[in-house]
Amino acid sequence: MGSREEIVAAAAKVMREQGYAHATTKAIAQAAGYSEALLYKHFKDKTEIFTSVLTERLPALGSTLDELMDTAGTSSDTPLAANLARLARITLSFYLESFPIAVSLFSSRELLATHRERVLSRDRGPDVPLVRVAEYLKEEARLGRIREDADLDAAASLLLGACFQYAFLASFEDREPSPKELDEWAERLAATLLVAVAS
After folding, report:
1. Residues 35 and 127 in one domain
2. Is there a single domain that holds both residue 106 and residue 50?
3. pLDDT of 49-98, one tens digit each?
4. Whose CA is closest to 137, among 72, 60, 77?
5. Quick check: 20 and 101 in contact, CB under 8 A?
6. Which ranges does the entry annotate as DNA-binding region (predicted)?
């Protein structure tokens, strides 16, 4: 593992333990065993480190969506219910991992405003998963597996919102759900959403 990967891994650990607001670049560099100067050779600022943690160290929501988009409609098609359950499961894991890191952004309006400006300038805002899930559902609708009249933006919001709420409650309760519990909840979410949108 190179220095960049070690810095991202250290940042994920420090941000989980201290939250984004208190995870200084100095603390991240120390945890990685490098100087702050080396950290800045790889990253422009803490926001860039944070987005790297989200995309590289947390459950791969983006790559799962890429795979679902690539395989939608192929002859070896997985049932829509299974795709939705897989999507719900990875989303649950993503939010469970990212919630403790990101929640401290809301501790200060100034911190949130600064972070929002930097993230949006890089097209990495929290709306990206919502847009991507809606795009995936639109592809399924184009293939006839979802009703033409289904509100796909609302369906995407329902799925992601339910996963986010679950992560919030688990974090609030300081509870780490078992893989079996996450699998079962993902299947229940997928089955419920399927009733609303399936053709």
Report:
1. no
2. no
3. 887 877 776 657 777 777 877 776 564 578 889 989 999 998 998 888 88
4. 72
5. yes
6. 24-43
- Residues 133, 88, single domain; the answer is yes
Instruction: Identify whether residues 120 and 170 lie together within a single domain.
Output: yes
pTM reported for the whole predicted model: 0.78
How many structural domains are present in the chain? 2
Q: What range does the domain containing 164 cover? A: 59-197
Decide which of 183 and 47 is more confident: 183
- Are 37 and 67 within one domain? no
Same domain (yes/no): 153, 124: yes
Do residues 42 and 135 share a domain? no
pLDDT 10s digits, 133-189: 998 899 889 888 999 899 999 999 999 999 999 999 998 998 999 999 999 999 999
70 plus 126 within the same structural domain: yes
Kindly list the distances between the CA atom of residue 183 and the CA atoms of 125, 133, 193, in Å, as whole numbers in the listed order.
27, 19, 15
| C-alpha separations of 105 from 11, 15, 53, 177 in Å | 15, 11, 15, 24
